[in-house]
Amino acid sequence: MSDRPKPETDGKKVSTRQRIVETTQELLAQRPPGLIINKDIADAAKVRQSLIYYYFGSQADLMREAMLQLTEAYIARRKAGVDRSETFPRLPISDHELWWRAAANFSADSGHAYSKLNWEYPVVQFEYNEILAHHPETEPNAVKRHILREICFNFGWVVYKDTVAVGLNMDAEELRAVERDILA
Question: Is 6 within 8 Å of 23 (Cβ atoms)?
């Protein structure tokens, strides 16, 4: 099952704009954003490159829209499907693979690609806030450790730790403590 949001088409063909977004999502799930050029997007979407600028103004705006749609779909599924009676729910890749892979590719450069988009780590913040809202007695640092462990379990610690730490507003001391805990 794809985690891509389905456009409101009423049985009609997907719009060109949405096709460009979906193609960009697929490409972001395959490689880092810095390795994607507009020609790649246009060729895969079977459109002229000029349409990227027509619909989005820039490649950064297109990538922001692609991640926004993936993120909204991810959060909607998490809201609908997570048992929040569990203090530390898993963050599985299944049912969200497109989002996870795209997010991982954005994170692979210690968050520089996210910074270019002015991205505020909405999924990490959503998970953090949901756990604390449903379990206010839980120590915030325990929640951060859980989220980091889950992401590290899914994708590996070294490449993503700095990016996730930024998303969780962790300082260097907190990150070292979590790193010791995870690697112990």
Answer: no
